[in-house]
Every structure is written in C-alpha cells, then in structure tokens.
Design brief:
Layout lengths: L2 H8 E2 L1 H4 L8 E3 L9 H7 L8 E5 L7 H4 L7 E5 L4 H8 L4 E2 L7 H8 L2 E8 L7 E3 L7 H7 E8 L13 E3 L5 E3 L16 H11 L7 E4 L3 H11 L7 E2 L3 E2 L1 H8 L15 E3 L1 E2 L3 H7 L5 E3 L2 H4 L2 H4 L5 E6 L2 E3 L4 E2 L2 E2 L2 E2 L6 H10 L4 E5 L3 E3 L6 E3 L1 E2 L17 E4 L2 E4 L5 H10 L6 H11 L10
Parallel strand pairs: 1-10, 2-3, 2-6, 3-4, 4-5, 6-8, 8-10, 11-12, 11-17, 13-15, 14-16, 17-22, 18-25, 22-26
Antiparallel strand pairs: 7-9, 18-19, 20-21, 23-24, 26-27
Length: about 450
C-alpha cells in the first residue's frame, strides 16, 4: 500500500468534499475541538440547494456557519449531545436541540441505533504509517466513523497527537475524503477563577483524598480548586481516570502529585477521553506517553471504575432538592449543558473499593435581575427540571456549609443532612417544606 499515493488520491478542497451531503442526510460534526471548520463553512455555502440536513455535534466552541446562515432551520437542523455556552445561546433562540444521553452510551448509540450519512471531523496530520490521531476528542469518534457511509477528515496541523489507549486514531484506508486548508487556532477554555467559597468546598473534599487515590475532576471552578489545593499539598502518587482532561491534571503532574504508579489498571497512565483547556494543556498532550486516550465507553464504564481502588470523583451541579435529586444540566426547562458523564462517575466512584463520589455546589446564587440571594437547595426541583442524578444514586453532596453523605439513608435522614448543608438563611423554610412532605422527624437535631 502506497500511503502517500492514497493520501493524494483522497485529498480535495472542502467545497468539493461537501458535495457528498444530500438533502435529508444525517451529518455528524463529532465533538468539541474535533468540530470541522472548513467543511462547516463550505457546507453552509450550499444552503440554497439543500433541505432538511440534520447535523449532530456537541460542546461546540466555534460558531457554526450552517446555523448562523440558516435561522429558518429549513436547510440545516443542528442537534447537540452536550451544550457549550454557544450552543446554549443557540437553544435559547430555537436554533439547537438537545440529544439526551448518558455519556458512556454514546458509542453504543451510534453503533446500535443511529444513522450517519456523512461524518466530518478534524484530526491531526497523518503519521508515516497512515494513521490520523483523533487528538483531543476520542469520545465516540471511532464509532461515528465506523457507522458513517462517507468519512471526511479535516486535517488541522494545530491538533496534537494523543497517545492510546484504544480507538484513538483512524487509518487512511478507513477515510474516504481528506481536506486541508488554513488551520484555525484551537479554541481554549482557560481555568475558571477560584473564589473563597470554592476553597471552602474544596477543603472538605481534600480531607477525603489520600495518597495513591485516583481522581476524576469535572470542568469548572470547583474541580479546579480541588486540583489546585492538591498540587499545593503533600499528597503523593495520585492516579488519573477521567472523561475530561483539564489543566488541573497538568498542574498536578508537574507538581509531582500524579504518578499513576499504584493504579489497579492502566498502571503508569493517566486515562482520559476528551480534552478541553488552555493551549499549554494541548501542547502537554502532544505525544505524551504518560497519557492514554480511550473512548468514552471505557473511561466512563462503571465496571471499569469499580476495578480502581480509592477512586475519587468530583463534579458540579446546579440545584438539589431535599429528597436528594440533583440537576446538573437544566435551570427549570432551560437546557444549560447536558448529563455528560456525571452519572457515570457518580456510579463508578461508589462502586470503587474505598471510592467516593462528590457533587459540589455553592449553597446560594444571586439573581442577576433583582440582586436577590436564592438557595440552590430546594424543597423540590422547579417544574420541567431534568433529574441528572436520581436520589437512589446519591452519595456525597458538598457545599461551603459541609458535606452530606446520602448513600443508603432514608428520606428523613436525607432531608436532615441536605438541609444541614443549605445556607442557614433558608433552613427554616426548608424544614417547613420537609414537614409538609411528611419527611421531617420531631427527633431531628436542631440545625
């Protein structure tokens, strides 16, 4: 096989490549930094000649030309697996629909249930053996390419090569069309600023982390605060098993806290599936043999996590109710992000020998319009809220007021513990709500 000859034979311009898309097709844009830029613009240029083209993507970080140029949605209908801030704004305008999923099932959904007529995804440049790295987005990239009738890769020289793992690359023989062009700078999400409240919450979690623990950090200021405090601690020989690789892991590794030496599986490797962060993080990923990129059905599989001792999982949420139900993705009926892998890690962390799963949140927020302080601990979730984590799967909830272990607790015990970590200003009101539900015992301790 002459790899270079095959490369040249499959190489074309974006305008020619997108002619593979027909009206009524399902097109896939992959996820996050794998979003095709050149192909998206070329496809948008065909708006007048195409109808009812359905597009799947997720965590999109650059504007979508097919959406921006078609506010009627008659030509292109965009759907997202997980909202970024950009997609949230599109949804508010009626220009984006959410696709519910549990993240670990995403490859299975493609292989078992979905049609893909054309897959378009950005990849790193081909290596000497004919492989294109899926780079910062493994997730379900292999499953998408396997299911697609036509596979188009957009080569981006700015994308790093991610070491495997599994399913972290695609061979030229599996690709139908290759597109090159002016490579856009990669979108970055720099670490969120850490507040004093974040530090208070992180302190509670820090007390639960010990030498040789394996950690999973979600995105946002709270997980970043934990990572920062761990880097400044004397904790040793941490491991990594995560869906999302963020800057905190790089900081911890450079500080000597992460070694992956004592993991039960994938010893010596930091396991991850998706990476979003700073340019420094992307540079760190490039050909880093200490990192192993896996598809999401491996990183997020509870049975895999169960094989890892002392797995500590740390994630954020939006609101909780006194029954222990958690929403991490909606505000009422408004979709904010997505289920993602939170329920996966909540489950897997508890299954791990010595493992613990933490859902963290500030006890209050300030209403932007009125300046009024409101509680994130509620008697019941707002109408149309989506329950990300059911009460039956709850473990630790953490606010700046403390930590509530809900595992195996009755409804009155849950109410007591959850109200105990609410802001003191709202506790009397929450107790009255618990009384109305018949889950408040007179023998409960005074909060």
């Amino acid at each position: 096989m002459d790899i270079q000859r095959e490369y040249r034979a499959k190489l074309t311009v974006a305008e020619q490549a997108v002619k593979m898309v027909k009206s009524g097709h399902w097109v896939d844009y992959s996820f996050a930094t794998a979003q095709p830029i050149l192909l998206d613009k070329a496809l948008a240029a065909r708006t007048g000649e195409l109808w009812d083209v359905k597009i799947r993507g997720g965590l999109i970080l650059n504007p979508l030309a097919v959406v921006e140029g078609d506010p009627s949605r008659k030509h292109f209908c965009y759907n997202s697996w997980h909202f970024s801030g950009y997609e949230r704004n599109l949804s508010d305008q009626g220009l984006c629909d959410y696709i519910p999923m549990i993240y670990r099932n995403k490859p299975l959904l493609y292989r078992k249930s979905l049609d893909v007529d054309v897959a378009m995804m950005s990849v790193a440049p081909m290596d000497k053996d004919g492989f294109f790295s899926f780079s910062l987005t493994n997730s379900a990239s292999k499953a998408i390419s396997e299911k697609a009738k036509t596979v188009i890769v957009e080569v981006n020289k700015n994308l790093p090569v991610a070491c495997g793992g599994q399913e972290n690359c695609i061979h030229i023989s599996e690709v139908d069309i290759i597109v090159e062009g002016n490579n856009p700078v990669l979108p970055v999400i720099n670490p969120a600023p850490i507040t004093e409240t974040d530090k208070k919450i992180a302190k509670y979690i820090m007390e639960q982390v010990k030498d040789r623990s394996t950690i999973q950090l979600g995105i946002g200021a709270l997980p970043n605060a934990v990572g920062t405090m761990l880097a400044e601690s004397d904790i040793k020989d941490l491991g990594v098993h995560t869906e999302l690789l963020v800057d905190a892991y790089m900081i911890l590794t450079k500080a000597g806290r992460i070694t992956n030496k004592y993991k039960n599986i994938d010893k010596g490797k930091a396991v991850w599936s998706l990476c979003v962060g700073s340019q420094e993080l992307y540079d760190w990923v490039n050909n880093n043999a200490g990192l192993a990129s896996y598809p999401i059905n491996y990183t997020n599989a509870p049975q895999v996590m169960a094989a890892i001792d002392n797995l500590i999982t740390i994630n954020n949420c939006v609101e909780v109710d006194i029954l222990g139900q958690v929403t991490s993705e909606t505000s009422g009926s408004r979709q904010i992000s997505g289920t993602g892998g939170q329920l996966d890690f909540l489950t897997g962390g508890y299954m791990s020998e010595g493992g613990k799963s933490f859902i963290c949140f500030h006890s209050t927020f300030t209403e932007k319009k009125t300046g009024e302080m409101k509680s994130r601990v509620l008697m019941s979730l707002p109408q149309s809220s989506v329950v990300t984590n059911p009460r039956s799967q709850a473990h630790y909830l953490v606010t700046e007021w403390g930590m509530a272990d809900l595992a195996g607790r009755s409804v009155w015990e849950r109410a007591e513990r959850i109200i105990g970590i609410a802001h003191p200003q709202f506790r009397d009101e929450l107790i009255k709500g618990a009384e109305k539900l018949g889950i408040w015992r007179r023998t409960n301790k005074i909060l």
